Amino acid sequence: MYKIIFLTAFAFIFFSCNDEGRSEFTYEDWDTDQNAIIDNNEFDNVFTNSPYFDTWDQNNNDYISEEEFYEGYITMMDSDQSGDLGPSEWDEAFNAYFGGLDYEKDTAFKDWDVNQDGTLTSEEIMSALEETDYYDKWDHNNNDRIDENEFAESTFTTWDTDGDGYVQAEEYSKWYKKYNRFN
């Protein structure tokens, strides 16, 4: 039930309407100075004025707890909304979200699939993620909560796949397609 609510809210809020009433965010909405790149300041300004953070902060207490964080990731990874991840969903999710972890993709799947049934349940993923320091990488001030600015900064870093300090159109397109599949 949580997944359906989260996906519906995320898709509706993030892609339903921008400041000008259009039905989706465009690259130009984020590239506010129209110089064909989105820098960290542009990203932060749009991000913090959008409802994106609120879709992850499920209890509306102005921070994302570790549980909310991992539940959000599990929901994003589960592209068929089945409640578990098969090998192809895992491959896509690992490459998109967890390339920085000290795991090999295939080893992680086998290790995380505790019951060895060939799928990862949300419980298996949550348990495995809690053993990593992934949440801590987003919690920059180490206070056991991710505020909106930390979330925006880490999201920017995630979207900036080549690490050049900018989100270019092709990088934006990759992430937009990934999130827009829920719309």
Tag the structure with descriptive keywords.
single chain; 183 residues; mainly alpha; Recoverin, domain 1; two-stranded antiparallel ribbon; 11 helices; 4 strands; globular; disordered N terminus
Q: Could you explain the architecture of this structure?
A:
With 183 residues, the protein is mainly α. The protein has a single domain, classed as Recoverin, domain 1 (Orthogonal Bundle), CATH 1.10.238.10. Helices cover 56% and strands 4% of the residues. It has a two-stranded antiparallel ribbon with strand order 1-4. It has a two-stranded antiparallel ribbon with strand order 2-3. α3 packs across α10. The radius of gyration is 16 Å and the shape is globular. The two termini are 18 Å apart. The N terminus is likely disordered.
Going by CATH, what is the homologous superfamily?
EF-hand
Shape: globular
Mean pLDDT: 81
Instruction: For the largest sheet, list the strands in their spatial order.
Output: 1-4
Specify Rg, calculated over alpha carbons: 16 Å
Q: How many beta strands in the DSSP annotation?
A: 4
**CA distance, first residue to last residue:** 18 Å
Number of domains: 1
Named at the architecture level, the CATH assignment is Orthogonal Bundle
> What are the low-pLDDT stretches, counting only 5+ consecutive residues below 50?
1-23
